[in-house]
């Protein structure tokens, strides 16, 4: 992996369906599947909607395992 960003962290959710589940009224403005969201997602560690940052800027960065999907859903 050449670059490690939030997208490579277990705390980052970038799956559009999961984002829409977290923000149920998002569909009023559009969709999490749209290009306007870019690569942004939800950091459950910071409890924020963020663009992926370089991993070295976050002390909570925890790499995802190879078998893990793209983010997780809060239960």
Summarize the structure.
The protein is 9% helix and 11% strand. The chain has one helix spanning 16-22; strands at 12-13, 41-43, 48-50.
Describe the structure.
By secondary structure, the protein is low in regular secondary structure. It has a domain at 6-57. It is 9% helix and 11% strand. The chain has one helix spanning 16-22; strands at residues 12-13, 41-43, 48-50. It has a 3-stranded antiparallel beta sheet. The protein is elongated, with a radius of gyration of 12 Å. The termini are far apart. The mean pLDDT is 78.
How can the largest sheet be summarized? 3 strands, antiparallel
Average pLDDT number: 78
What proportion of the residues is helical, as a percent range?
under 10%
Helix tally? 1
Low-confidence stretches: none
Task: Tell me the β content.
Answer: 5-15%
């Amino acid at each position: 992996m050449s670059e490690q960003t939030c997208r490579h962290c277990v705390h980052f959710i970038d799956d559009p369906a999961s984002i829409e589940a977290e923000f149920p009224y998002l569909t009023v403005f559009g969709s999490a599947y749209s290009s306007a969201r870019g690569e942004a997602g939800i950091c459950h560690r910071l409890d924020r909607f963020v663009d992926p940052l370089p991993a070295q800027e976050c002390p909570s960065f925890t790499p995802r395992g190879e078998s893990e999907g793209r983010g997780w859903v809060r239960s």
